[in-house]
Specification:
Layout (H helix, E strand, L loop, with lengths): L12 E5 L6 E2 L2 E2 L3 H15 L3 E5 L14 H7 L6 E3 L4 H8 L6 E4 L16 H7 L4 E4 L10 H4 L1 H4 L1 E4 L1 H11 L7 E4 L4 H5 L7 E4 L1 H10 L6 H5 L15 E2 L3 E6 L2 E6 L9 E4 L1 H13 L2 E5 L12 H12 L3 E5 L1 H9 L7 E2 L4 H7 L5 H4 L3
Helix pairs in contact: 11-12
The protein binds 3-phosphoglyceric acid.
The site of 3-phosphoglyceric acid has 9 residues, from loops.
């Protein structure tokens, strides 16, 4: 696959797909490691005197965290100055045309366009936008499992290569020997984790995923079952032979942490972390593992009352002497928040990483080949 060094970008217009998808709390977009990583690719292109236009997304249409990228532009500007414009209006086309060498423009959330979901080059979005560009750079390994137009459409019609973040990720993952690994799967995107359930992998479940595994085994949490209502059936009991589920949880009672053993549910309180006993059991297993793959955090680590599970599990992974890889946007943020040392590779990807680990072809990467 071609890299940035394959082309001379001087004075050329370059369209760059990055991944700024972030956690949004009470309308505020939280800074994460992806911003700094992509800034390296952008700075490289700036130094080569390219005219850079960035494509990125936030959330999925209809979801709470589906927002404009205005705040993202500000956050990215902490590392490299970018200007923000709407996507595909006359104003943005004028801005693109008038870009000077070394300038950078971030277009608004690409998922506002229906054409993004067509996943090909034969649509207005790709046809109109590609006319303005000489090159396409894909820097978002973390979105490469999505067959969406900004990932697979442009490489069909423009000379293309991967950016620095994508290159780094691919080189690290090539070294990953994932067979016989201990998997720690949590986070808020349980559908991604389900792909790893095959009764052979040894899995410690936590986060929303762990709760859904528990529910599949017959546990009724009460309020938490209601919270998970649309997802209740996505984990199947017959896939859980080698999966450990938490035996206690922390619930939120008037903002405070209280712990309940599994036998004490149903409860009217929602779950925000795994409990002390589960933490201890999981840490013991982590100590013995030779290879560890962790994706998704055990609890709501942004809230100090519920960060204990995430912090202790990540510390244990860091202390482990084997080879460890962690993935998922929130996992890498938690590593930086708690200053965890000793993890071998911190992936900036979630779902894409899972597809890679289970051996699937990633459309975004195939399109660059
Ligand atoms: C991610 O955060 O994992 C990527 O940005 C992909 O987001 P998606 O799961 O909404 O496609």
């Amino acid at each position: 696959m071609k890299t940035l060094s394959s082309f001379n970008f001087k004075g050329k217009r370059v369209l760059v797909r990055i991944d700024l998808n972030s956690e949004v709390v009470n309308g505020k977009v939280l800074l994460n490691q992806r911003f700094k990583a992509h800034a390296e690719t952008i700075k490289y292109l700036k130094n080569k005197k390219a005219k850079v236009v960035l494509l990125a997304h936030q959330g999925r249409p209809g979801a709470k965290d589906f927002t404009t990228l205005k705040q993202h532009a500000k956050l990215l500007s902490k590392f490299v100055r970018v200007k923000f414009v709407d996507i595909l209006g006359k104003k943005s086309r004028d801005e693109i045309e008038n870009l000077k060498n070394g300038e950078v423009l971030l277009l608004d959330n690409v998922r506002r366009l229906k054409d993004e979901f067509k996943g090909n080059s034969n649509n207005k979005f790709v046809k109109v936008l590609s006319k303005y560009f000489d090159y396409y750079v894909n820097d978002s390994f973390s979105v490469s499992h999505r067959k969406q137009s900004s990932m697979v459409g442009f490489p069909k019609v423009l000379k293309s290569c991967m950016g620095k973040t994508m290159e780094k990720e691919i080189n690290a993952l090539k070294k990953l020997k994932i067979k016989n690994a201990l998997y720690i799967l949590g986070g808020a995107k349980p559908k991604d984790n389900i792909k790893l359930l095959n009764n052979k992998r040894r899995i410690l479940s936590c986060g929303l995923f762990g709760q859904l595994c528990s529910i599949a085994l017959g546990i009724n949490f009460g309020a938490q079952n209601k919270f998970l209502k649309n997802k209740l059936k996505i984990v199947k009991k017959n896939k859980l032979k080698n999966v450990e589920v938490p035996n206690d949880f922390a619930v939120k009672v008037n903002g405070r942490r209280e712990e309940l053993r599994v036998e004490e549910f149903p409860s009217k309180y929602e779950i925000f972390d795994i409990g002390e006993d589960t933490i201890k059991n999981y840490v013991d297993e982590i100590k013995k593992a030779k290879v560890i793959f962790l994706k998704g955090v055990p609890g709501d680590y942004v809230n100090n009352n519920f960060s204990k599970g995430t912090k202790e599990i990540l510390k244990a992974v860091g202390r482990n002497k084997g080879f460890s890889v962690i993935g998922g946007g929130s996992s890498s943020d938690a590593v930086s928040k708690f200053k965890i040392k000793g993890i071998n590779h911190i992936s900036l990807s979630g779902g894409a990483l899972i597809d890679y680990v289970v051996g699937k072809k990633l459309p975004g990467i195939e399109a660059l080949k």
